[in-house]
Recover the amino acids of this structure.
């Protein structure tokens, strides 16, 4: 009886159309991901070629995984290094680190970034936003921190592949209407080694699709 049911199901007229629809949906998703990936890649290269031109009150460094194989994640500390370079060049007056508890290792991303800045010799003013769990929350929860410090202009610092989405989230959430915002692409060791293949090739397009589906992007 079970064998007959299995054979009947496999040969039923609705199985082939359903499989065809699933294949078409997967192909459509793949096409959209590739198209988004190309757009993000081009934007990343443009950001790297055109760093911020104006000075700003603060550099806002967006969080990422805190630790990798028992050490501070170079993808995260590389973002801090880019902000330190801005501070060293006199482009920003203070650093703001945004990132909450990392679900993978229990570390607070903002605190890991601050520790790296101190270990790198930075002695300037620093602010922390230690609660956010996403890029959207990085921007939303940092707003009060920035406003309390009297910040009017901000350079958002993150890896190149991340900036396309970060800018659109900033616009959709009104962040860029509260502050004069520029964006700086951080050429971290992760980016230099892997480029879009590290996270941007698959994870970032899927994150963009997810954010758009929830109405977070404009």
């Amino acid at each position: 009886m079970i064998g007959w049911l299995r054979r009947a199901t496999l040969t039923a007229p609705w199985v082939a159309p359903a499989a065809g629809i699933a294949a078409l949906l997967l192909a459509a998703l793949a096409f959209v991901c590739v198209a988004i990936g190309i757009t993000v890649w081009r934007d990343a290269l443009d950001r790297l070629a055109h760093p911020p031109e104006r000075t700003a009150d603060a550099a806002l460094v967006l969080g990422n995984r805190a630790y990798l194989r028992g050490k501070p994640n170079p993808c995260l500390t590389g973002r801090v290094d880019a902000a330190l370079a801005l501070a060293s060049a006199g482009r920003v007056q203070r650093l703001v680190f945004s990132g909450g508890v990392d679900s993978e290792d229990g570390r607070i991303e903002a605190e890991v970034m601050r520790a790296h800045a101190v270990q790198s010799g930075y002695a300037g003013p620093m602010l922390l936003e230690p609660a956010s769990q996403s890029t959207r929350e990085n921007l939303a929860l940092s707003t009060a921190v920035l406003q309390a410090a009297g910040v009017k202009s901000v350079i958002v610092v993150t890896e190149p592949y991340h900036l396309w989405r970060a800018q659109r989230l900033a616009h959709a959430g009104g962040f860029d209407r509260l502050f004069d915002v520029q964006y700086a692409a951080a050429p971290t060791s992760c980016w230099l080694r892997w480029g879009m293949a590290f996270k941007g090739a698959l994870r970032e397009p899927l994150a963009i699709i997810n954010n758009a589906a929830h109405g977070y992007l404009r």
